[in-house]
Amino acid sequence: EDVPSQTFDNKDYFCGKETFPVYESIFTEEGETIRKIAIEIEKPPQIEIHVWTITKGILRHFYVEKLPKREFEGLPYFKLITRTTLSQWKIFSEGEAQISQMCESRVCRTELENLVKILYLEKSEKGHC
After folding, report:
1. pTM above 0.90, yes or no
2. How many domains in the chain?
3. Is there a domain that residue 127 lies in?
4. pLDDT tens sequence across 27-81
5. Phi/psi class of residue 9: alpha, beta or left (left: φ > 0; alpha: ψ in -120 to 50)?
6. What is the distance between the terminal CA atoms of the chain, rounded to a whole angstrom?
7. Could you tell me one molecular function GO term of this UniProt entry (predicted)?
8. Packed helices 86-102 and 109-117: angle between N→C axes, nearest 10 degrees
9. What is d(CA 50, CA 71) in angstroms, rounded to the nearest whole number?
10. Which of 27, 39, 111, 116 has a 20 to 30 A CA-CA distance from 79?
C-alpha cells in the first residue's frame, strides 16, 4: 500500500515534511541473520546503513556504515520498503541504540520488528497534519 504523496521539486512530502527512501536487505546463513536498514540522504548524497547481526533472535552485533550514493546503487540486494521523515529516522536510531544494549543477552525479535515499523508513515496522519 503506497502512501499518497504530494510532489514538489521531484521530492515526496508527508504532512509538509520531506521524506527519504528507506531500503532493506536480509541475509540468512548458518543460523545467523544479517539485516540491513538503509536511508538515502541527499546532502551530502550518501546512504546510511544500519547493520544488525542476529543469532537465534539475539542481536549479536550492530553498527552503522555510510556509503556514497554511487556505491550503494551498485548493490543488488537492497529493496525499497518505504519512505520516512528525518524525525522518524531519528526515533528509529535512538530506539536502535536502546535495543542494541537491551537485546545483547535476550531474544528481541518483536522489539526489532516494531522498531522497523516506526519508519512507516501512518496514512491516518495525513489528515491530521
Report:
1. no
2. 1
3. no
4. 998 889 999 999 998 877 899 999 999 888 788 888 999 999 989 988 889 999 9
5. left
6. 20
7. BMP binding
8. 170
9. 16
10. 111
